[in-house]
Specification:
Length: 167
């Protein structure tokens, strides 16, 4: 009986000591994870891009380029339709100029660079100065860079202007 009481006292003592002892492996609070959509909504486009998986980045680029190709197709077809329908007369020059303007605009939607855009966006958003620039402008920049639509000086001037505006 005395050994049972001694065992109970020992267990109670050990239990009390365990409750007051400092844990040997203190739990570190997990860093707060901000959802990518919240980053994008608050203008942290660089953080948003970095938080996306490679598959999500590919899906974004694929969806964006598909939409832009559709718009290019529609505007180019309308441009051709307008040019063909222009009849000689006082409004002929105005119609042809409007058609020409639409054809030029359709080229702004040419994003046939494909997945090399994702690599370019990775590089673009790796620069902390670009984290506030929305993806549609980043896509335009990378497209123009890949296609050499603009000189390096023109690209840099445009980029610096966006950086000022987006701050």
């Amino acid at each position: 009986m005395a050994t049972h009481i001694a065992a109970i006292v020992l267990l109670l003592t050990l239990a009390a000591a365990a409750q007051t002892a400092q844990p040997t492996d203190t739990l570190q609070p997990k860093p707060v994870q901000i959802p990518p959509l919240m980053m994008r909504a608050t203008g942290d486009y660089g953080g948003w891009w970095a938080a996306l998986s490679i598959e999500a980045r590919d899906n974004f680029v694929d969806g964006y380029t598909t939409a832009m190709q559709k718009v290019q197709f529609i505007t180019h077809n309308q441009c051709m339709k307008n040019a063909k329908s222009a009849q000689p007369g006082p409004e002929s020059n105005a119609k042809l100029q409007a058609s020409f303007n639409l054809c030029a605009l359709s080229e702004e939607f040419d994003y046939k660079a494909g997945m090399s855009l994702r690599v370019g966006l990775n590089r673009f958003y790796n620069n902390p100065l670009n984290e506030r620039i929305p993806p549609e402008l980043a896509m335009e920049y990378v497209r123009d860079e890949l296609k050499r639509n603009k000189t390096i000086g023109e690209l840099l001037e445009e980029l610096n202007e966006w950086r000022k505006t987006m701050q």
